[in-house]
Design a protein that fits this description.
- With 321 residues, the chain is α+β, with helices and mostly antiparallel strands.
- The chain folds into two domains: 166 residues, Ribosomal Protein S5, domain 2, CATH 3.30.230.10; 126 residues, GHMP kinase, C-terminal domain (Alpha-Beta Plaits).
- The strands form two sheets. Strands 1, 2, 3, 4, 5, 6, 7 and 12 form an eight-stranded mixed beta sheet that branches.
- A hairpin with a 2-residue loop joins strand 6 and strand 7.
- The longest helix has 20 residues.
- Bound molecules: (R)-mevalonate.
- (R)-mevalonate binds next to helix 5 and helix 6.
- (R)-mevalonate (MEV) binds next to helix 5 and helix 6.
Amino acid sequence: MTEPLSPVPARGLPLSARAPGKCIVFGEHAVVHGAPELAFAIDLYTQVLVRSAETTRLNADAEATAQNPYFRSALERAWSGGPPIDVRAVSRIPRAAGLGSSAAFAAALAAAFGAARGGVDRATLAQQAFEIERGAQGVGSAGDTSTSVAGGFVAINGGGAEPLWTVRAPDQTWKVTRVADPGWVWVVAHSGVPRSTGDAVRAVGERLRKPDGPSLLAEFTRVAGDGIRAVAQGDRATVAELIRRNQELLREVGVSHPRLEELIRAAEPAAEASKLTGAGAGGSIVALPIPGKEAELVRRLARAGALPFVVRPAPDGAALV
Ligand code: MEV
């Protein structure tokens, strides 16, 4: 296991780096507005291979330097002035599914570029990965990229035991801390409904500007804060209750979706609780299975038309491979 604060060492080209996707247990959307969040890295990765080349390309496509906003943002922010490179990227993380594929791509590229430029400490890597994703998306918090850089369970904006780093935007900061993995099995199910993180984040921002916005944000804050403590204490019953409450709040701010609600209902007989995970408006749900009913839960979600899988928290964050 990589020490969360261990630097990514220097390495010459060619080199390969990988970074995990993530699953948010509490606090998505509210984290953009300063509330706490709890997320863990999942054992699905994006891996990049970076080699010297005559012209810069992504997966053999020279147009990607202009057309892929994440690649362009990474080149501008972490490879500026560098020589042309050939980048190959492969990912096991479903795209536009709420599972952090863009954050993992940003973190893997930042780790690879940092290594090629003499090594990079993890706090700098977290800052760079955030800036790459924010530069491409225009909105968003440091939660996804910091989880991908740190691995394991992380709390954003309070609640964790061990401080990791602080990520800064011109208007905001996110304090990132470590939470111990309670050792539970989680099930994620991808609805197959695609969505845009940026659009969902902007829509929630609008919703929170309504008169009841501050009280909704206060309840998001309470739920995630209590949820972080309950996970740290291994208190499943409280975690399940708070997952259900978090889903009610996400529904209230308009980012659930009829398919996600169907999946949550389909999961009920085999899950202690489930909620959408990530930006919502499509994408995926995460469920805490009733112990011993993991396989039944996966079958139920598949029968309901989703792509379900058991996810294991990945202890390691972005790293050279
Ligand atoms: C998306 O995975 C999580 C959101 O909270 C956006 C963000 O934190 O950047 C919806």
